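Homework help thread (please don't just give me the answer)

Our assignment gives two proteins as sequence + structure token strings and asks us to describe the second one. The first is just a warm-up. Here they are:
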Amino acid sequence: MASPRPHAEEEARGGRLDFCLLRVAARRNRRRLALLVPERVGRYFCLKERKAKFSTEIRAGTVTFLTMASMPVCCIPASTEALAYILAVNGAIVSDTGGPCTVHDCTYNKGQPGCMFGTGNGFDPGYLACKERAKRSMVTATAVGSFVSCTLMGLVGNLPFGLAPGMGANAFFAYTAVGFFGTGGMVSYQDALAASFCEVRLGLQGSLGA
């Protein structure tokens, strides 16, 4: 039977020591990174000048997301209602227009005007399925729009404002401009979207010009 190498124990001990040193170095690097990130972020956002702390701003941002509200105009600083509420309700309100759904999505009486209202046993199931898909898309669009707006406000504007779609303009859009299921309104869903886009673009140009 072969005898163990004379330096086997020393090599094993040295390997354990190297592993321990690597762990200590990794911990130190994590600590340095944990201190460096708040420091750089603090300089960029002027936390010292504003007498704020990195941890306080993180907590404030979390609270803002959970308790944020928007005014009845698209994309302005929020104040009192929950952002999660806006994400859900904005999609529900706008989807009442039917969105991109048409009479060709109906299961019964397909293609006929008013087929979305069903045949007396509730709304048409095919149209409702299309409306539900549109609602999910609108909830996603609301979340993405809020994320982009809040990110730009923080990184470009350097201001601690939360932004979200307005809860007044969407009701006017859904029930007055377009109408329930696209009926009884003043314009079509596509025309109303185009008008909203032009409104936001004019507002943005005015803000940048000012």
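The one we have to describe:
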Amino acid sequence: MFPDRLSDLETSVVNAVGNTRRALKFACFAHRHGKSYATEEGIRQSRRGLRSSWRIVV
């Protein structure tokens, strides 16, 4: 389903924000746009920012 190189990022996202459909969508977004995060807190902050943007758009 996901490319092999996504698995590390996916694992990091799951550890940081949980194993939900939206978390996996965030992992796909981050992978597609070449994002990387040094810490779990960085993942959480980025996801919060993206989630806020999605609310504005939708």
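TA reply:
I won't write it for you, but here's a hint about the kind of observation we're looking for: DSSP finds three helices and no strands in the chain.
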